[in-house]
Structure formats: C-alpha cells, structure tokens
Design a protein that fits this description.
Length: 533
C-alpha cells in the first residue's frame, strides 16, 4: 500500500468517524425535555416533562435552600401500573448538560410513601441521571397495605425494578444513549431494596450500596414485637428513657478501653460481654439502676429472640449505643410506655400486612405463632435474604454493605450474618471478589451517634476522594477494578471536623498505631483480629 492509498484510507476513516459523531449528536438532540411527555412506555403514563432552570426547583412545602445550587435539568414524572391495584409514582431527573453517562437509582426508608427529592438533588448535581419512586403509595405508615396484596408486592420489590426499567428508557430517549453504568445506593428499607435488586434483578445495576439493610424484614418486625412484649406487658419491666444513660455509661466503663482507645465508642460491641446484672438496684430504685425485671428485659434485648428449639430468630441489639437522638428511646424503649406501644414498624406491619386487622394488639403477640405467620405470608415478598448472588457476580456487579454498630433500629449483626451466608453459598474467595462490608463503630441508624458517621452515600457533593466516599469507591471498583480496602469516615460537630477514622473492610478493624492524635485516621491501621464467637 503506497502513501496516497494510506492517506485516502485514513481520510475515509476520519470522515466516517465525523459522520458517526454527527449522527450521535443528532440523536442526543432529537428529544427535547418537553417531548418526553409523549413517550410511550409499557404500563406507564408520563404526567410531567418539564425543563427546570438552574437553582429554580423548590418542591411544594419544602425550603428551596437544598436545591438552590442544582444545575438545569429535565424533570419527568409518571405513574406505573403493573397490576390492577398498582399506582407507582416516580420521577426521573436528567442533567440538561454535562451528563456523566451514568444512572443513579434512589431508595426509600421505612414504609416509603414519597419520592425522595433530597436523594434526587445530590445525584443530579453530581451529573447523574437519577430516579426515585414512592413504591406505589403515599404516607409513612402501612395503612395502605390493609387488604392490598399487590401494593405489598410493589413495596416489596416490584416498584424499584419498574422505576429502574422505565428510567433507563427515558434516559435513552432523552440522550439518545442508554447509561453506561447504573448504580443504586440507599439505607434501612432502602438497603433491603438494594439487596432485593442484587438478588431478584441482577441486571438492573452495576454497583449497589446497601446500608443497614432491613433485609430479613419478617424476623426484624418479629423481634420488635418481642421486645415490646418483654418491656411493656409487665409495667415493672419497662425501661424508661431516663435509665438509658446509666446503661450506656456502665457499658462504656466496662468495655470502652478494650479496643485501645477510650473515646466513647466500641469498635466491636459483640466483644464487650457486658453483664446487665451489674446495674441491679441495691436499695430504692432510681434512674441510675435497674430492677430485676428490667435487667431481664435488657438481657433479652441484647440477646435477641429464640424459638422453642433455641434457634436465634434475629440477632439482638448491641450494647453501647443506648442514648442519643437515634438511640433506644426512638426505636426500642420509647420516650414513654405509650410512645413505645405505637412503634410503627412492628405494629403497622402486623396490623396491615400480616393479619389485615387494624385492631391487632401487640399484647396478644406470641413469638412462635405470630412469627411463623409473618414468615409464611410476607417473607416471599419482603425478605431479601437469598445468599445466591451468583448472577449479580457473573455480570460484573459489585456490592458494598455498611452498618453502624450503634444501630438501635436494625440489628448490626444481621448484616454480618447475611454477608457470611453469601460466603457460605459462593465461597469466601468468590464473595470477596465482588462484596465488601464496612461496620461503622459508634454510628446509629444510617447516621448519627458518637462515631464518625459521614462517608458518602451520594449526599456529600463536596467529596472528590474515593477514600472518603462509598459511592466514589463503588464507582472506582466497578469502572477501574480497584476494590475498596477502607474508607475514611468523618465526625463533624457544628460543621467542624471533630474526628476521622478508617472504616475497614470486614472482618478487619481499625486499630490505633500507638502515637499521634486518636482523632486522626492517619494514626490507625486496618488489622485482622480473632473472629466473633
């Protein structure tokens, strides 16, 4: 081939490349935001397709401040009806410019019931096309589920999958290209949704973050009801919120220094071995001690419920995180006995999902009978406990889980047990190739508590370092093949950094090197210690 032939061929290739680029640009520009209102999708009605100017979004009843720095985006809203009783509302936000080519699915806490604008906003600000759903109903309780089994299916798993499928079609219509990568990150019930996606719909997402997952839903609600019965059936067993400080103080006095740093945080509370009997009142009962029935109830909360054969139904709650805004008063003991009786997670689920009886009374709860009914009726729809993630692994998916050791809403050890079940199913080496778990000392439910509780999850727009942000660490793992060995968590007080500490990939734990500030992550290293008993 001579020089002129080579030049002609190179010129032809360049012309072809230019034509392809022009066609791609034309495809991207073909769909305006407003034209998406006419988009036809299966079982779906588009109700809104609207261009939103930079900083102009302000949802009804909400302050504009969290949204004032948003870029211009295309806002699409719709309703999906996969069944005759479905009414799944969703929104998709698409950056008007500088789309990063990726999709970010947003999850829901509790019983869902609303679209998460506070989740959509930071995702679109980071350049993602993003979507959120109310999972098929409005409101934060479970009254909607009474005699509506299809709505329970939507809440259980169908709505997130439907939202994901429709969002990807809308993205492709708007940009002229499907997302190159798709991610999902959420906590609590959103963590359950995350694991449900990995288990049921392994092709939906390339990378998933499941925070404090309520994945063993039926056993978790059974555990809540069991705790209520133990603390409230006999007035003498009730542990008032005023006593929680004495309990936590005694726990920390017994165990805080065992990890080498006395900082008000237990690095692994399962190794504490605290005996509640040390708090027995020696004379008149006060807020600084417990009576014998309260001690018995406290032991049961720590231990977790067991069936008639002695098998643990759900792990108990760990010691050391009893106080604070996200502590036991909000989830286990209540501020008052009356408040404790209204704990929505258990009472709402048994009334509206298990028995379809709005008058169900927790005082009638029987661990064996009611736990069995809940398991038989709801586990196939609500539980995300399947350890077989082989399909998700095979398509290159990566999964990061995290859980705060001070969580008073969902037992931290439950998440460890799930990861270990995956390792038992697929093998430790295979599991390690696509799963990472980070346990967060001193962190309550999803956030809060005395420990460093900020480590990303698509809410910290100022983070640019994958070492400080789980979402960036996940993207790096998916896109570059670099598995995260640790992330740096930060504790802020009044906006000021108080402490940083590494969160280590389980079963490793952060240990102080012996010199330098114990508030600086640089002075800690990740080490492997003996396994939990």
């Amino acid at each position: 081939m001579n020089h002129h032939q080579t030049s002609r061929r190179n010129g032809s290739r360049m012309l072809a490349a230019l034509l392809l680029a022009a066609l791609a640009c034309s495809a991207v520009a073909a769909a305006t935001c407003e034209s998406l209102a006419e988009l036809k999708l299966p079982n779906t009605t588009i109700t809104l397709a609207q261009s939103v100017a930079a900083g102009a979004f302000a949802p009804s009843g909400s302050a504009a401040a969290p949204y004032k720095d948003l870029p211009a985006f295309c806002r699409v809203a719709g309703v999906i009806k996969p069944s005759n009783d479905s009414d799944i509302k969703f929104e998709v936000w698409l950056p008007a410019a500088n789309w990063n080519g990726k999709f970010h699915g947003i999850g829901n806490g509790g019983f869902a019931g609303s679209i998460s604008y506070t989740g959509l906003a930071p995702a679109v600000a980071r350049g993602f096309a993003t979507a959120s759903t109310d999972t098929g109903h409005s409101g934060g309780n479970a009254v909607w589920a009474l005699n509506h089994p299809e709505k329970i299916v939507d809440y259980g798993y169908r709505a997130i999958h439907e939202m994901t499928e429709k969002a990807k079609l809308i993205i492709k219509a708007f940009y002229g290209a499907a997302p190159k990568r798709s991610y999902f990150a959420s906590c609590s019930n959103g963590g359950r949704q995350a694991l449900m996606e990995a288990q049921r719909y392994p092709n939906d997402y390339d990378g998933i973050i499941a925070g404090a997952p309520a994945n063993d839903f039926t056993h978790i609600l059974t555990g809540f009801a069991w705790n209520m019965k133990n603390t409230l059936a006999d007035p003498a067993s009730y542990i008032s919120a005023r006593k929680l400080k004495a309990i936590e103080t005694a726990v920390l006095a017994a165990c805080d220094a065992r990890d080498g740093v006395k900082d008000g945080v237990l690095d692994d509370p399962t190794k504490c071995g605290f005996d509640p009997a040390t708090l027995l009142c020696k004379g008149e009962e006060t807020d600084e001690c417990l009576n014998s029935k309260q001690i018995a109830a406290l032991k049961q909360i720590y231990a977790g419920p067991r069936d008639a054969k002695g098998k643990l139904i759900i792990p108990g709650f760990t010691p050391g995180g009893e106080t604070g805004p996200g502590g036991w008063a909000g989830w286990i003991t209540g501020a008052t006995p009356t408040a404790a009786q209204q704990f929505f997670f258990s009472t709402q689920a048994f009334k509206n999902m298990v028995y379809n009886d709005a008058n169900w009374d927790f005082k009638t709860f029987d661990l064996e009978r009611d736990g069995k009914v809940a398991q038989e009726k709801l586990a196939p729809v609500l539980n995300a406990t399947d350890p077989n993630l082989k399909a998700f692994q095979a398509r290159g998916g990566k999964l990061i889980l995290y859980h705060g050791w001070n969580d008073a809403a969902l037992p931290p050890v439950n998440t460890i047990n799930y990861v270990q079940s995956v390792a038992a199913k697929l093998g430790p080496k295979q599991t390690d190739s696509f799963v990472r778990l980070f346990m967060a000392p001193g962190v309550q439910h999803c956030a809060g508590g005395p420990g460093p509780d900020t480590f990303g999850q698509a809410v910290n727009n100022n983070h640019t370092d994958a070492q400080h942000d789980l979402t960036l660490a996940l993207e790096r793992w998916v896109e570059e093949g670099v598995a995260p060995a640790q992330v740096i968590a930060t504790k802020r007080v009044n906006g000021q950094v108080q402490r940083t500490r590494p969160l280590c990939a389980y079963p490793q734990i952060a240990r102080y090197k012996g010199s330098g500030s114990t508030d600086d992550a640089a002075n800690f290293s990740c080490v492997t210690e003996p396994k939990r008993k």
